[in-house]
Design a protein that fits this description.
By secondary structure, the chain is an alpha/beta fold. Helix content is 37%, strand content 17%. The chain has a 4-stranded mixed beta sheet. Helix 3 runs antiparallel to helix 4.
């Protein structure tokens, strides 16, 4: 089985990059330290692929994606800044969309709609 340590006792885990679950299956994934966490997955259509794993990992899906996107660092920056100041999920979702719209000089609402918060 594959074990990827994610530093136990973390409050917030972020995955940013290519959605490898699109390519493989990981049936034995587990939360080894048994600590509940917030999670953000910035990768293409991450909500569809990771929603199965969040309950197994005892992770709350603070931010996932509903569409294809470039998983770029400015999104993580917006997420962390808002999470660290204890902003609600909807504010974090909006901030991620605002950052994406600003960087790509595009319409705001489609960018916000690229993200999802919660179950």
């Amino acid at each position: 089985s594959l074990v990827i340590p994610a530093f136990g006792n973390s409050d917030f885990i972020i995955f940013n990059g290519h959605n490898g679950l699109m390519d493989n299956e990981y049936p034995a994934i587990d939360n080894v330290d048994n600590v509940e966490k917030d999670a953000a997955v910035i990768s293409c259509v991450s909500d569809n692929y990771f929603s199965y794993y969040f309950p197994k990992l005892k992770a709350y899906p603070l931010l996932t994606t509903t569409n294809f996107l470039p998983p770029e660092a400015y999104i993580i920056s917006a997420v962390i800044d808002n999470w660290a100041t204890m902003q609600p999920g909807e504010k974090i979702r909006t901030s991620a969309g605002e950052a994406m719209a600003k960087v790509h000089h595009t319409a705001l609402q489609p960018c916000i709609n690229t993200f999802k918060t919660g179950w």
